[in-house]
Each structure stands twice: as structure tokens, then as C-alpha cells.
Write a structure and sequence with these properties.
By secondary structure, this protein is of the alpha+beta class. The chain has four helices and three strands; from the N terminus they run αβααββα. A three-stranded antiparallel sheet has the order 1-3-2. Helix 2 crosses helix 3.
Length: 119
């Protein structure tokens, strides 16, 4: 009878064994911890960063601008598409200038009804 495969010729009589882990691999050490001076102690207030990183920048991503206005990302894209908020292109990226957000808020304040006439 004809065989469709040929049996391996070398190491055929030796049983198969599991591969061992290489000896040069050392278990990972735990991640470094912060120094004790950086941790707040009892009665001490944590360090305050009054200015966040988004307040320093001139242009924001769509998500950061939406977060700064307190609206959702989809609403932000709708406002951009409607032309209410201007954007700039930097390469292939769309960014929202911070002054554009200020202009949008000012336009909302100008369009609002006075409080004595509201409901």
C-alpha cells in the first residue's frame, strides 16, 4: 500500500518533550513606585495644578473642545458642520482654536433672551 506521507527519519525513536523556557528570560520586576516625597501625607493638601494642559494650548482636538464646552462629541461635530464653530486644518487633522470656542459662547450670549422675558 502506498503512503501519502513519509515518517520523520531523525529522532523518530525519541518521545516528544515539552519545550523548556529559555534560561535567559528573567521574570519582570514590578513597576517603579513614586518617591515618598511625591505622595501627600496626612493633613497635607495634594499639589494643585490650577491650569490644565488644555487651557495652555492654542488649538484643541474636537474631543477636547467638546469636553471644554461640556457637550458631546457628536454635538461638537454638528456645530462644526453647521459653521457655528470654526476649525483649522493642520495637515490632515482638524483642530479647534480656543478663540473660536470663545466666539461661539459670545454668540450664544448675544442670541439669548433676557431673563425678565424668559418663561
Amino acid at each position: 500500500m502506498r503512503r501519502w506521507f513519509s515518517p520523520p527519519t531523525e529522532n523518530y525513536d525519541r518521545p516528544a518533550t515539552r519545550r523548556r523556557r529559555p534560561a535567559h528570560r528573567i521574570p519582570r520586576s514590578p513597576p517603579p513606585t513614586r518617591p515618598a516625597s511625591a505622595l501627600p501625607t496626612l493633613g497635607q493638601q495634594p499639589r494643585e495644578n490650577t491650569v490644565s494642559s488644555t487651557e495652555k494650548r492654542v488649538v484643541l482636538t474636537i474631543e477636547e473642545a467638546a469636553q471644554r464646552l461640556g457637550i458631546g462629541r457628536t454635538t461638537m461635530y454638528a456645530l462644526i458642520k453647521a459653521g457655528q464653530i470654526r476649525t483649522v486644518r493642520i495637515g490632515r487633522l482638524h483642530r479647534v482654536p480656543t478663540f473660536s470656542l470663545d466666539e461661539y459662547v459670545r454668540s450664544l450670549l448675544g442670541d439669548s433672551t433676557p431673563l425678565d422675558r424668559a418663561a
